[in-house]
Amino acid sequence: MMKFFPMLPLLLGTAAMAGQVHVGEDGHAYNPHWSPDGKYLAFELNRYGDAVDLFVTQVTTGNGGVPTKVVIPGTTSSFSGRGSVVAHPVWHPEGTLIFEGSNAGGTQRLYYWAPGGQSAAELLNTNQIGGDLTWPSLSPDGQTLAFVSDSAGSGDIFLWSQSSNQVTSTFTSPDAEAAPRFASDGKTLAFTRKNRGTEDLFLYESGAVKALKGGNGDQTRPIWVDNLVVYFTNERGEGHWDIAVTDSAGAQRTILAREVRLPMRAQPAISPDGRSVVYTMSDPEQGDRLMVTRLDGSKTVQIPTNLVACGEPDLVEASGKSWAAFTALPSATDDPNAASDYRQLYIVDVTGKLP
Amino acid sequence: MSPSTRILALAILLITSPVYAGEVEDAEHIRLTEEMRRLSKRNAWKGVEAAYLELEVLRDKRDVALEYEDYWLGAQSARAMGDINAVYNRLKLAAKVEGSREVIEWLSDLDANYGQVDIASKKKEDVTLAPAAMPFAPDQRAAIEAAQAQVVEEGEYAGLLPKGAYSFGPESLTVVAGGELVELLLIDERPPKGEREDFELAYIGPRATIGPAFTSAGEPSSVSWESDGFQPHGFAGAGARLGVGLEAGLGEKLGVLAEVGYHGGFGSAVSDDEIDTSAGSPYELEARKLNTGYGWLAGELRLGRLWLNAGPIWSVGSAYTSDVPTADEGAPCSNCVVAARGTIMAAGGAGGVALALTDIGNLSGALSLLGGAQSDGSRLYTWGQLGFTLAPASPKSE
What gap in Å lies between CA A72 and CA B134, rounded to an integer? Predict the structure, then answer.
């Protein structure tokens, strides 16, 4: 069953003053990801064709400090890892950052690093699991890590247990699985599978795999909110991305937003209270704002930013306030001196502006 | 080659040789650093660690100064090996070369997440080290696993451990990051009276002794040739003793043993010189002999390799002797030969001293000197033995 909300009440807020995080290096900022306590913000700096670097900035009352570049072994911050790709940050509840990394031409592996601590190191060694490791995702208690390895084929989901330090296989299939995400029970996984050319949503539950949502186009990057699964879908055609929500049985499916801007790697952003999804629009005319829609579809608000081509939002609650991090191009209209060819990282206080 | 050319060549050789030696070491240093760098990009940390250890040899034996990157990669390889103490030491060396932000932050991270412990167990049973919860960070897990392995292998660990709660055998300890050294020594305490339930023998195992012996059957209290109270003269002879049994240690030094075995002594027969054979030899005379079985209970004191034991012994067996009574001994004949067989039952004491020479599995081999004195009520039997004893080995001292 599909439901639409053609008459959504749309509330337009006043423009929020977004603070820029100055990276000090050229490249497009992408994929900001808050630490659970809101003290740190990890993000990627994409140089296209050269390297993707991972940075972490300490955030104090919405102001990002000088970002620290996270480098993987084989380099030091003094000997920058040219050609390396360090991306896809995920925060462990204890404050450790887990991410994908590879040196030029090397294997993609999972690494860990903690702010203000030691250098990054490999999380799982090749004796534990071989191949390219991607799509790290932690259970809510941080005790189990799900990830994808191509060691046995085109990409299967594996689990690593913190208590036993053992890696176990979930299931094998000839298809490529990706984007695993744990439900709140820490056991059920939502993931996607390349199914006859397009991505479909599946669940891994009690040792069995079952289809959740398929159909035209891709259904991808699921994220759980209680027993709901929120995801991106381009079932209306290539380049037309919507955000949908479904229950875990796949019986009730609702399109929450249409023509949204698809983030580089991230799942749909969920508000700290778990009641709304936060996104930006693909239409350049509407690219100057953050959009927030209740998961029940009852209300949508806009948060203007005075910036251009906003995207990649992520929200957190810290010190009693709600903060949104996102990337955008500076608005040359408002401030010609601020014009930049690169997407910059911004932080904005959205307290009281969420529906 | 002219003499002047030879001198010139020799001079050049002498001048360039020391430089060449230094260049070899520098080249080796560069090669190892590049190898570490290359392997680290592939997360091949065993190889990085091996190369770093070679660099340490260059530094210690050939005075090659290591650089910041050497120590930095060495710290990372030690982390992958789970040797957190080596990580700390190498980072400190790196910081001496260059106090970079990444080194200072890593050292600060270790100070903020690790504490020093010195734990050991002198208990007889194995003890284990276990964290209340395994931390997430692989380096911390590896540090704990390395400490656990050392505890299993050596019963002790001294060095850094991630902060948190642990159990060490029956005790608990809390490691505080950057806090005071946590020391814990586990020993076996002697429980109060009434609570000593789990008594364990210090050692237990089979025991055997074999060796030549010399036995003397002494003169009887009174010689008698009466058929119902026959008591011939004493005799002595060489023989052998062979015993097997069980020995157990009540403590590390005190034990008990039980042994049963065979004790034989063989003397000479009456010679023709002693007998009037004018009327011909009456019959073939056998050699004097003693064949007994014995049972021996003893306590044993072990003073290192020296073992002392003593205890009661009881023997039963048979003897054969022949003799020529003199005229004043009331024998039914004179210059005749009296030969007789009879049984012996004699009790007394036996003891000895042994020197443990070697261990054979769980047993020790010892050179032993034993002796005893037993009486059957009429005469005293004394004996001595030089033997080889196998007995349970003493527990290894801590």
Answer: 24
Chain A residue numbers with beta carbons less than 8 Å from the beta carbon of B136 are: 92, 94, 96, 112, 142, 162
Contact residues, chain B, for A162 at CB < 8 Å: 134, 136
Contacts (Cβ under 8 Å, ≥6 apart) of B2: none
End-to-end CA distance of chain A: 26
Going by C-alpha positions, the residue among A353, A355, A345 that lies closest to residue A18 is A345
In our burial notation (b when 16+ CB lie closer than 10 A, e otherwise), range A82-119 reads eebbbbbbbbbeebbbbbbbbbeebebbbbbbbbebbb
Taking only the tens place, the pLDDT of each residue in B126-184 is: 888 999 988 888 888 889 999 999 999 988 999 999 999 999 988 899 998 887 888 88
Tell me the per-residue pLDDT of A31-84, one tens digit each, with 9 for 90 and over: 999 999 999 999 999 887 668 899 999 999 889 989 999 988 765 444 344 567
**Closest Cα in chain B, distance from residue A166 (Å):** 12
Predicted complex ipTM: 0.73
CA B12, CA B16: separation in Å to the nearest integer? 6
- Kindly determine whether residue A74 and residue B41, on different chains, have CB atoms separated by under 8 Å: yes
Give the number of residues written for chain A. Answer: 355
Q: Are B385 and B213 in contact (CB under 8 A)?
A: yes
- Across B89-121, b (16+ Cβ under 10 Å) vs e yields ebbebbbebeebebbebbbebbeebbbbbebbb
> Is A92 within 8 Å of B79 when comparing Cβ atoms?
no
Q: Kindly tell me the burial class for residue A197, based on how many C-beta atoms sit within 10 Å of its own C-beta (0-12, 13-18, 19 or more).
A: exposed
Neighbour order of strands in the sheet with A242-247: A2-3, A253-257, A242-247, A228-233, A219-225
**Chain A interface includes B216 (CB < 8 A):** no
Give the burial string for B264-303 (b: 16+ CB within 10 Å, else e): bbbbebbeeeebeeeeeeeeebeebbbebebebebebebe
Q: Does B138 touch chain A (CB under 8 A)?
A: yes
Residue type, B93: L
Q: What does B227-250 look like in DSSP terms, one character per residue?
A: TTS-B---EEEEEEEEEEEEEEES
